[in-house]
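ARCHIVE CARD
Drawer: 12
Card no.: 0347
Subject: one protein chain, sequence and derived structure
Cross-reference: see card 0346
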Amino acid sequence: MLKAVFLQIGATILVALAAGLISGTRGALSAALGGAACVLPNLLFALRLSLVSKRPAASYPLEFFVGEFFKIASTVGLLATVRLVYPDVHWLALFIGLVVALKANLFAFLVKT
């Protein structure tokens, strides 16, 4: 899972750089914040699952579903926080940063470990 998180971080950086070239600092920061709203909860979720994997198998499904719920709630909360803290957000860049970070893990199987 950490491989997917690192791919998300790389994709977020690339999108932020591209948004910076197109929209300036405002676009770069918005794209980075959109990607971070996805990456941070996924990183915490991956770390939590790696700790839980050492427990008995019976508790693992519950931990997974509870963790997934908190991951989604955290992403929504971080996006709401971005809106409150950074009112000059560039919405298209934020949305593209979020979507690219969400879809970056589809390419995790292509990366050799």
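Annotation on reverse: Helices lie at 2-23, 25-52, 60-85, 91-104. The two ends are 12 Å apart (CA to CA).
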